Amino acid sequence: xxxxxxxxxxxxxxxxxxxxxxxxLGLLIKMIHDTESRTLQSFLTSDFSRVGxxxxxxxxxxxxxxxNTKPKRVSREMAEKLFEGIxxxxxxxxxxxxxSPIGEELLERGLRKEINAEFYVATTRPPAVYRGNPFxxxxxxxxGGEQPADRQVRILRFANRVPLLFQAGGCAISKSIIQTGxxxxxxxxxxxxxxxxxxxxxxxxxxxxxxxxxESKEAIAHYPEIIKEIKLAVRECGRKLSQYVNKKxxxxxxxxxxxxxxxxxxxxxxxxxxxxSLKKADELKIESNLKSIxxxxxxxxxxxxxxxxxxxxxxxxxxKIGKKKAEKDE
Length: 330
What we know:
The protein is of the alpha+beta class. The protein has 9 helices and 6 strands. The protein folds into 3 domains: 25-88, Helicase, Ruva Protein, domain 3 (Orthogonal Bundle), CATH 1.10.8; 104-242, 2-Layer Sandwich (Ribosomal Protein S5, domain 2), CATH 3.30.230; 245-329, no CATH class. 47% of the residues lie in helices and 11% in strands. The N and C termini lie far apart (72 Å).
């Protein structure tokens, strides 16, 4: 049984027109010949999304074509110029109301619901375009917990909220994860292999047209734009994961160093009692003072800007504070 993470239905997607970025030359020529617009400028504004009058004029200017050119008279050479002019023009990203992404919050909530881990992170990339079709890549990582550390990470693939169960080796999602270097993020990885570590990686692609490799719809085609966005999404999650892992190691190192200091405080106080011929009560007082110096050192380091998660030489700082306190007592 897989319980729902939310009771709210996703927003209903809306129909949009192709975006100029990612439209191939052959499709562009076909659209020019099939359009009912009378000028090239009106063709750009009416047959594409995110193209206004000023943007259409800029495209024509970058293509060295007149805005009032009739589409029926556009030759292949002119279409090639228009194709290059679109690449040179800055056009805003396509709208996202035509697709239905899961969202960072729900993706992380779903990971927490199904996987018992110690750290969760999810991200949603800005919309991108391939072949004129907008798409969004979402990724999430569940790290640690009861997951085995000596096995390859578990990869969960989704396309428009539907899980992809087979043909993992031929999918763009698996290829993108394998091509990403995971060692800086705390995983071990052999060349050309899935990383090894206690983690689950989930990747979701939402698009108006998902390019599957076959009619079975079990693997996503290796489009460069899609692979690039998947890599950026998993790297963003990996950076947040590495920050957590490094912070955890530094905190453990601090507690380890602190335990060493606390371990030798009784021996130091006992040695001072013998050297100075002090009483047992004085020894307990010395031990209490040394512990207070330790706490005072940690508090002052944090106050002056030393983060307790940073690699600080506490032995050196303790000796400095101890000297200042001794001078004050004298």
